[in-house]
Design goal:
Length: 211
């Protein structure tokens, strides 16, 4: 049975946690007045928003990804919209149809894999953004990964950080959380995309690959 390394601080049965990213909040306050809808594309954005902004749960929440939507609900938000599609034109079309008359604030990290603000603005959406946290790589100087391992990448950033500490072995296999993450892998890597954009689905796919 192959070792399954999960590039996340989360611990799942049958996997070895290999955190690739550390987070740092970069704002101490957040003014939500003037906005009726908040766009979140990560759980971390919700965590930090909850620390610095009162009453955000009363806004309409546009949550990209089922894990983000679940976290928003756990933190008390009640009016949550979870788009059927996660990226690009599909997401823009979905938001245009349902949020064309709203003033949206995109609460985001410093580095993003897809410029949602510019893309949605080009389709006529009234959207602003606030950067409230940044990500940095966790460095591994002496750690050695076992041959024939399966590596689960949960974001494009985890791929970037992985290759700062490790070299890819031909015996490795990769499982990625979605197509945007897949695009960040170097050519020639044997990769599988999870059936849903969740860590749970990534772990299931890794176990399927190992059978």
């Amino acid at each position: 049975m192959s070792k399954i390394y999960l590039c996340s601080p989360k611990k799942y049965n049958g996997t070895i946690s290999l955190p690739m990213i550390k987070f740092k909040r970069v704002k101490d306050s957040l003014d939500l007045s003037g906005y009726d809808t908040l766009l979140f594309t990560s759980k971390q954005a919700i965590y930090y928003c909850d620390e610095i902004a009162d009453g955000w749960q009363e806004k309409e929440i546009l949550a990209v990804g089922s894990a983000t939507a679940k976290t928003a609900k756990e933190y008390g938000a009640k009016n949550i919209y979870y788009p059927a599609k996660f990226y690009g034109k599909e997401l823009a079309s979905d938001i245009l149809e349902k949020f064309s008359d709203r003033k949206i604030l995109y609460i985001r990290p410093k580095v993003i894999s897809f410029d949602s603000k510019s893309f949605l603005q080009s389709h006529g959406i009234d959207i602003s953004e606030e950067i409230i946290y940044e990500t940095n790589c966790v460095e591994y100087k002496d750690k050695v990964l076992e041959e024939n391992s399966i590596i689960i990448f949960t974001s494009p950033s985890t791929i970037e950080c992985f290759f700062k500490s490790f070299k890819w072995q031909e015996s490795f296999k990769a499982v990625v959380i979605g197509k945007s993450t897949l695009k960040k892998l170097p050519e020639g890597i044997d990769a599988y995309v999870a059936d849903e954009a969740t860590i749970d689905a990534c772990v299931l796919k890794a176990k399927e690959v190992d059978n």
